[in-house]
Specification:
The chain starts with 5 loop residues before the first helix and ends in a 9-residue tail after the last helix. Helix 6 (117-138) crosses helix 8 (214-231). It is 41% helix and 14% strand. The chain has helices spanning 6-11, 29-47, 52-61, 76-81, 91-98, 117-138, 155-163, 214-231, 242-249; strands spanning 66-70, 107-112, 145-149, 167-173, 184-190, 201-207. The chain contains nine helices and six strands, in the order H-H-H-E-H-H-E-H-E-H-E-E-E-H-H. By secondary structure, the protein is of the alpha/beta class.
Length: 258
Amino acid sequence: MSADDPWLLLKRFTDARIGLGRAGSGMPTREVLSFSMAHAQARDAVKTPIDWTTIEEELAALGLETLRIASAAPDRDTYLRRPDLGRRLSAESRQALAALPPAEADLLIIIGDGLSSTAVTANAVPAIAALLPHVRKNEWRLGPVLLATQARVALCDDAGEFVKARAAVMLIGERPGLSSPDSLGAYLTWEPRVGRKDGERNCISNIRVGGLSADEAAFKIAWLLREAFRRRLTGVNLKDESNYQLEASKPPRSLASP
């Protein structure tokens, strides 16, 4: 591409593959190699196991207790073929949750590997660290943070019902794209219980460097949670209007001198 190529200006505003150029009848070698690298990163995000020990240590430094659980999917291949098993707790995890001291939590936070271990490793702890000041300000009681292996979003329903949480936030690795293998999603569910529909949840997606920052995501999660506790619902009937509050909190712009 030449310096005056109009695609260069547009490429500054998107990670999408546009204006790739041409080498004869095909793409330039650098673009072919870049695509192959992105594809490999996406595959690795799905297949690579999470190092839960590091996440446990980082959460402990924030003063949070953790508990490892797993879905009924016994391995990664089964998890990918059987989404239904990823939505239910394993028998061992039920026993582990049953052994917890009886205490009803206002908020249950679950970190699930989902479809991107890369996203969880990079973004889950920063998102929780940014959320904690909101949790303390609103005096929400937390249960142990659950670290869920082979997890689908609906696993929060099974776990949340089991521990009698009033609301649940599932932080989970989203399906990796070829420009974002590290995208984390946050799913909020009021009164989680088995059988909840997707329309009964709120989702905040693309939490990552280059997407929605941890601070922005925490602000939105906290806003939705406050409304969920007030209205006693989540999902399609709870619209994310946090941007209005965020804009109102910004100082007014000063007018430029003529």
